[in-house]
Amino acid sequence: MKAALSTETDQASPASPKRILYIQPGTSSFAGIERVVDTICSALSDKYPADFDIDVLYTSEHKNRPHGTQSYNIIDRIVHNRRELMSVLRDVIGAKDYDLVVVPQIEPTVICMIACIGIRRNFAMHLHGNPRLEPSHLKAKILFFLMRIYFIKRLTYVFGTSPRQLESFKAMFRSNVRQYWLPNPVRRFDALQKPEGEEGHVTFVNVGRFSFQKGQDILLTAFAEAYKLRPNIRLKVVGYGDGEAELRNQIRDLGLAAVVSVEHHPDNPSPALAASDVYVSTSRWEGWSLAICEALRFGLPVISTDCEFGPSDILVDRRLGLLVPVSGGEELVKAMLYYCDHLEEERAHAEFRQSFIDIYDTERVVDVHADALRIAAMGPAPLIA
């Protein structure tokens, strides 16, 4: 497992650029993984045009996808069913002599490799979530099984977003495939002044997809208990997703409609982060957590559940924030009350938080990704048979 963050690279440019294909998830929203792929591929194309020829395949129409001119090559092949997807994957991957194909997550990687049976290519699987918790339905269980018994031996590399995630994958799949830790890039935001709020209020904020994984139900339950003891607290829940109706119902049932706001900032959460005092993440599992990193970019202290994986890899110093059990409960309430009562002294660490997260700037992280691509694209590609 490798990762060395730096601002320089001493790699010599190759005689001809490595041909790299990234596969974007076939999702409807341009969010976590999609944004990471776009950011990294743009940075690679900008910084290393002599080293890499980057193509990115889009097979679905993403909401709020950036429409600017990307520096990488966009391949748009929108599909409407699994048969079309398999055909497009085989057609695109086979049409160009790619040195490496990078696919996010286990299920899409298996589908991609099945589509390419008989084609000689290097495949790198890029983990973004928690492999131990993801096979929750029959299709996923079958694809995980196929990866374990057959396709894992045909992978060139496994990339991951956190060291603990890669360790878990290796143990779960008894994998001997080489691994590389690739930190996610953390974007910078335009400077925003904290707006004038109600005097004496402490505002907590959570950003993420409205879903069981992100645990907003855990947060609301704890916030309701904290509100009984500190009526000056407020909460912003920022995001999108199928769980919004259930979220709003819980807010109503807990009697929190006057102190909890549900907000949508699909492209940029900075208005909510700039208007808040403390970030709270109550995810049941993660692969990393860009949302925590972006909160630290604003100098906010973080309370996070100590879930697999990511938060404990990020919050490595007490000045960055506090870890609480995944169940939340009393420990989460205590952490919220602590920041209510010690907010001024915690604000003294804001610059430390901002400086700490600079190590994950795109300009630094892109060098790590470039090194990983060079290594993974070396040598003859295996035949997927």
Automatic annotation (TrEMBL):
Residues 198-340 form the Glycosyl transferase family domain. It comes from the Bacteria. SUPFAM superfamilies: UDP-Glycosyltransferase/glycogen phosphorylase. Gene3D superfamilies: Glycogen Phosphorylase B. Pfam families: Glycos_transf_1. This is Glycosyltransferase involved in cell wall biosynthesis. It comes from Rhizobium miluonense. The lineage of its organism: Bacteria, Pseudomonadati, Pseudomonadota, Alphaproteobacteria, Hyphomicrobiales.
